[in-house]
Amino acid sequence: MTEPKTPDAAPTAGPFKKHGRDGKSNATIYDIARVAGVNASTVSRALSKPGRVSPKTQKLIEDAAAELNYQVNPFARALPTGKTNTFGLIVADITNPTFFDIIRGAEATATDRDYTLVLAESAESPATELTAARRLMATVDGLILASPRMDDDNIRALAQDKPVVVINREVEGVPCVVPDVHKGISEAVRSLAAHGHQKVAYVAGPPESWMSEQRWDGVQAACDWSRLEAVRLESTKPTVDGGRQVARDVRASGATAVLTYNDLLAIGLMQELQAAGITVPDQISIVGFDDIFGADFTTPPLTTVRSPLGECGAGAATRLLDLLHGNGEPAGTLSVETELVLRGSSGRILSPL
Amino acid sequence: MTEPKTPDAAPTAGPFKKHGRDGKSNATIYDIARVAGVNASTVSRALSKPGRVSPKTQKLIEDAAAELNYQVNPFARALPTGKTNTFGLIVADITNPTFFDIIRGAEATATDRDYTLVLAESAESPATELTAARRLMATVDGLILASPRMDDDNIRALAQDKPVVVINREVEGVPCVVPDVHKGISEAVRSLAAHGHQKVAYVAGPPESWMSEQRWDGVQAACDWSRLEAVRLESTKPTVDGGRQVARDVRASGATAVLTYNDLLAIGLMQELQAAGITVPDQISIVGFDDIFGADFTTPPLTTVRSPLGECGAGAATRLLDLLHGNGEPAGTLSVETELVLRGSSGRILSPL
DNA sequence: CAATTTATGGCAACCGGTTGACAAAAGCAC
DNA sequence: GTGCTTTTGTCAACCGGTTGCCATAAATTG
Q1: pLDDT at residue B164 is higher than 90
Q2: Which of A277, B29, B131, B345 could cross-link with B43 by S-S, CB 3.0 to 4.6 Å?
Q3: pTM of the predicted model, to two decimals?
């Protein structure tokens, strides 16, 4: 007999039963093939290539699959194809509310199109970001970089490997999704001009931030157009704390209205000014950027130039998926509109400083 | 000549060069084996099982790997082992700031221990949550459920398949990480009592929320102890908007202090009361839960019972990873401490309603 | 009805690792 | 040098799908 000599042939299950792996271990296409009386490759075809098998075998197989409660093993599928139905999103800081809506937009689009989102954070470090990107690259079909901190060449290098879409920055040769600051800033500055302001300060963000420069350019252009004076102030970091710290420069600048690189700076600035007894907007107007979560919690609620961040996330995901499916431009920038959200922190000067 | 007759014999690359697949396609253990002059399985062992091969072959292989810039193919590894070095995190609502710190805590722990975090959202729907969980289960080694909405049995069923850790809820037989509300609530209620309040309202969260009941229980117990009267009010949804809507019930209740299920409700409630001309905290005290991002943006800044959410996320991830590596209790609850964060929205009643 | 095209299913190789079984080599005592 | 144990590397089977190629059955055509 060819019976192999296995002494205690019994299923040597350990004393503790671990997870899974028991009887109800997942069904494979081979199980389906057996039940349906066809070859495994036919099952594979029935389940992926529509129309490749006859309707009646199709049904046979589908029934068997349903009965066995079959679901594909993503790894087995990924191994030969290289496709994982997954894409990565890297953000600089998960706790920065700017990214919340981006994440949500991307996540919604992913789920909607049957992809899974993998999230990573760079902790604001270019090196960490690159490491995370490389790591993710191995397991995803494509990558979205939101406000990346690494330099253009690294981004292009990644993009050569797999599709990459960048949010909040323009990189030559790589598809990007960027809010067009022009409209929102124009509205903001015109509103300030209409309320009689004559000197406007811009509090800049981090020097590496491409977007900060965009905004400064926009502010200058809009002030020019409205014949206002624009001055630029620097911040130490783009957070609430950074906003507090820049308050004295703001007061010293003589400006009656301030636009800040982002809402966090605006909120910190407002807190510090109010703590010093200054009334917003009666003595100074403050306008932020992004319209993040919580921008309307303040008193007065913050006037801000909204970037449609959810749209950015969704747009980037859509572009990425189009790219993955062979549609869509290989590069070029998708522009989304910004708009002024007029709340209570800006208005007419009633009692000058 | 055997030269095939290809008119424009050039490497028929399209006008655009596609991603990857070029020369630098990834090295495999077989390439390493060839370079190092050993068998592929030896390479595999050298790279995973430490000590299984001799130091000198080890070095040979490592050098070859470094030279070829090798990195494992996660799918090829996952196929036979079933291990992916990945775990999933499902949250009810990505835009709810309560989850931000949880996500961050879990992400940090994951990265730290060389795992990748996969994020999914349930949009507050038990059905979506279950679908997402099932989907993730196929590709991850374990799962963290933050404030799950599905019922206990479903959670236990999932936990039978792979390790699952639950945050913000206690499920019998499944490891959980839960903030212990007792200390924080006691502090809050004692503070209110000390300021002369006698009737306290609790604005509850969603009926499915286990945590909302915990908090209500805690409030009742603490009020009992301090001999205050406690009344319960219901909210429509646990958001800023829900907080606005419950304002009239709060006024009608006759309570001079309110604790809300979460900070969002507290913020909405405060906004609505202030809009009605009521002064906080002079006419009514408000205390939230969680200490989310933005809780201190309000005027007055919100007093709240802080849950260490980052710690919850990190703790859950740690437990999960321990479980995956065979350490740690299979079940039981890990409790983390809550504390009162006293800010401006609570205090003594100066001008009763 | 034979000839030919087309639709359909099967075979087997492959993706890139892991792992149990085993044999060759090395170490060691006597 | 012989016999025995321990290291170390190789062989080959496997994980669960995908896919090119081929044979056969069915459909179409003359």
Answers
A1: yes
A2: B29
A3: 0.84
